[in-house]
Design brief:
By secondary structure, the chain is mainly α. The protein contains 15 helices and no strands. Among the domains are: 60 residues; 155 residues, no CATH class; 41 residues.
C-alpha cells in the first residue's frame, strides 16, 4: 500500500522525494493540466517521428524501385550491348578466321534454308518499280487498282521471261564458247609471256637476282599448269555432277522465288501494313518512328542507287559489246560481260575489268591490244561522263573512305558478291548508325542543354546541296539546251514554210 501511495504522490505532484533531494524546497508544484499537455505533446512527437520514418522508408523504396526500373530498361540493355560488342571484337581480333568461317557458314545456312525467299524478294523488289510505272502511265485509264496491278504484274513477268530467253538463247552460248576458246589459248599465251620476259632480260642485260628470276618462271609455269588442268577430262568429270546438282538446286530456288515474288507483288500493301503494325506494336512511338524513317532511307538507297547500278550494268554490257565489235576484238561478249560486272565495283572496278582485257588482247596481237585499250577508254569515258550522272547520280552521300571500308569488309566476309554490294552495305550502315542513332542522340543532348541549339551534323541532303555541279553535268546541260534551241528553230522554219504554202494556195 505504501508503494502505491508513493507512486500516486509522484503522479499527482510530479516530484520524487529521492530525485528531488537537494532541490529547492520552495519550488512551485506542477499542475496536472501541464503534465497532461506535456504527455500529449510527447506522444505527438513520437508519432510524428514514426510517420516521418515510415514516409522516408516509403520514399526510399520508391526511389530504389524507380532506379531498378530505369536500370532494367536502359542500363541493362546498354551493358548487354557493350558486352556483346566486346565479345565480337575479341573474337575478331584473336580468331578472325574462325569468325569469318562462322559468318560464312551462317550465311550459307540462311541462303540454303531461305534462299528462295531471298530470290523472290529481290525479283519482286526489282519488278515493283516497273509495275508501278505501268500502273501510273500506260494503265492509268483502268479504274480498278487491283485489276491495274494484276495486268502490270503479268506484263512485267512477260518482259522478264523475254529477257531471260534472250540471255539463255543468245548470250550464254556465245559466252560459253568464248570461255572455252580462250581457255584453250591460255597455255600458248603463257608461253608467249615467258618468251617475252626472257627476251627483255637478255636484250636489256638486266642483272636480276636469281631468286626473282626463279619466282617469275615458277609463277608463269604454275598459272599455265593450272589453266591446262582445267581442260583435263578427269577434272571435268569430277566436277560436272557437282555443277549439275548445284544447277538443279539453284533452278529450284529460282522457280520457287518466282512464285514467291508473284505473291509479294500482289500482297505488297498488306505486307507493308503488317510491317507497320509489327513496328509500332513492338516499339514505343518515338523509336518506331525512327525505325520507319531508317527503313524509308534504306529503301531510297536501294531504289536510287542499287537499282541504278543494275541498270547501268546492263547498259554497259550492251555498250561494251558494240564498241568491242566495232574495234574487231575477239571474245567481245566475254570481255563485255567482265567489264559490265566489275564496273559495279566503285573506284577499282573499271581497272579490274579493263586491264585484263587489254593484256589478253595484247598477248594475242599487239595491234589488238591497242584497239582494246582505245575501246576500254571509250567505254569508261562514256560511262563516267554520261551514264553515271544520268542513271546512278550522286545519291549515296558517303565518303570514298567509307566506300573502301565497305568494299574491304564485304569482300572479306562474302567474297566477290560482298565486293559488288560493299558500297551499298556501307550506305545502309551509315543510315542505321550515323543518320539515325547518332542524330537522335545529338537531338536528345540539344534538348537537355548539353549542346548548343544551332549544333547539327550534315546529313545526306545537306551534303547533296553542298556538292557543286560537275563540269560534265554543266556540259551535258549545255548540249541539251543547244539541241532544244535547234529543235525549236527547225520547228519554226517548217511552220513558216507551211504558212507560206497555205498563203500561196489561196492567193493571199
Amino acid at each position: 500500500m505504501s508503494d502505491r501511495a508513493d507512486d500516486t504522490d509522484i503522479l499527482n505532484t510530479g516530484t520524487d522525494p529521492v530525485l528531488n533531494e537537494g532541490t529547492d524546497p520552495i519550488a512551485a508544484p506542477v499542475e496536472p493540466e501541464d503534465v497532461a499537455e506535456e504527455a500529449a505533446a510527447a506522444e505527438a512527437t513520437d508519432a510524428g517521428r514514426v510517420d516521418n520514418k515510415r514516409t522516408r522508408t516509403r520514399d526510399d523504396d520508391s526511389i530504389f524501385r524507380r532506379m531498378g526500373n530505369k536500370l532494367s530498361e536502359g542500363t541493362y540493355r546498354t551493358v548487354f550491348g557493350v558486352l556483346l560488342l566486346l565479345i565480337l571484337a575479341t573474337k575478331i581480333i584473336f580468331d578472325f578466321d574462325g569468325f569469318r568461317g562462322f559468318v560464312s557458314d551462317f550465311g550459307r545456312l540462311l541462303i540454303s534454308l531461305l534462299g528462295y525467299l531471298l530470290v523472290g524478294f529481290i525479283i519482286a523488289y526489282v519488278l515493283n518499280a516497273f509495275v508501278n510505272w505501268l500502273s501510273d502511265h500506260p494503265l492509268k485509264k483502268i479504274k480498278s487498282p487491283r485489276k491495274k496491278r494484276i495486268i502490270g504484274i503479268v506484263i512485267a513477268y512477260i518482259m522478264l521471261a523475254a529477257i531471260l530467253a534472250f540471255l539463255i538463247g543468245t548470250i550464254v552460248p556465245k559466252l560459253v564458247e568464248s570461255v572455252t576458246n580462250l581457255a584453250k589459248l591460255v597455255p600458248g599465251m603463257a608461253e608467249k609471256v615467258y618468251d617475252f620476259y626472257i627476251d627483255v632480260v637478255e636484250k636489256g642485260k638486266f642483272d636480276l637476282p636469281e631468286v626473282v628470276t626463279e619466282g617469275i618462271v615458277q609463277g608463269i609455269e604454275g598459272i599455265k599448269n593450272w589453266l591446262m588442268g582445267l581442260l583435263n577430262s578427269e577434272i571435268i568429270t569430277k566436277y560436272v555432277p557437282k555443277i549439275l546438282s548445284a544447277t538443279g538446286s539453284t533452278l529450284f530456288k529460282v522457280v520457287m522465288g518466282l512464285l514467291v515474288s508473284v505473291y509479294m507483288l500482289l500482297e505488297k500493301d498488306r505486307a507493308l501494313d503488317a510491317a507497320k503494325r509489327i513496328n509500332y506494336g513492338l516499339f514505343k512511338r518515338e523509336r518506331a518512328d525512327r525505325v520507319a524513317d531508317g527503313g524509308r532511307k534504306i529503301d531510297m538507297i536501294f531504289k536510287q542507287y542499287f537499282a541504278g547500278k543494275l541498270l547501268q550494268a546492263v547498259v554497259i554490257l550492251l555498250l561494251s559489246y558494240v564498241v568491242l565489235l566495232i574495234g574487231n576484238i575477239k571474245y567481245a561478249i566475254l570481255f563485255a560481260t567482265v567489264i559490265a560486272i566489275t564496273n559495279m565495283i566503285p573506284y577499282i572496278g573499271p581497272w579490274i575489268g579493263g586491264i585484263p582485257t587489254v593484256l589478253i588482247c595484247l598477248v594475242q596481237d599487239p595491234w589488238m591490244g591497242v584497239r582494246a585499250l582505245i575501246c576500254v577508254l571509250t567505254i569508261q569515258i562514256i560511262d563516267n561522263w554520261f551514264l553515271t550522272p544520268r542513271i546512278v547520280g550522286h545519291k549515296m552521300g558517303i565518303s570514298p573512305l567509307l566506300v573502301l571500308i565497305g568494299l574491304g569488309i564485304g569482300g572479306t566476309l562474302f567474297g566477290f558478291v560482298g565486293v559488288l554490294i560493299g558500297d551499298v552495305l556501307a550506305a545502309i550502315a551509315k543510315v542505321l548508325f550515323y543518320d539515325t542513332f547518332i542524330a537522335h542522340r545529338i537531338e536528345r543532348r540539344i534538348a537537355m542543354g548539353e549542346l548548343p541549339p544551332d549544333y547539327r551534323i550534315p546529313g545526306p541532303e545537306e551534303a547533296e546541296k553542298d556538292k557543286k555541279p560537275m563540269l560534265v553535268e554543266k556540259l551535258w546541260a549545255k548540249i541539251k539546251q543547244f539541241f532544244c534551241f535547234l529543235g525549236r528553230k527547225i520547228k519554226g522554219l517548217f511552220k513558216k514554210r507551211k504558212n507560206g504554202d497555205h498563203d500561196d494556195k489561196y492567193g493571199v
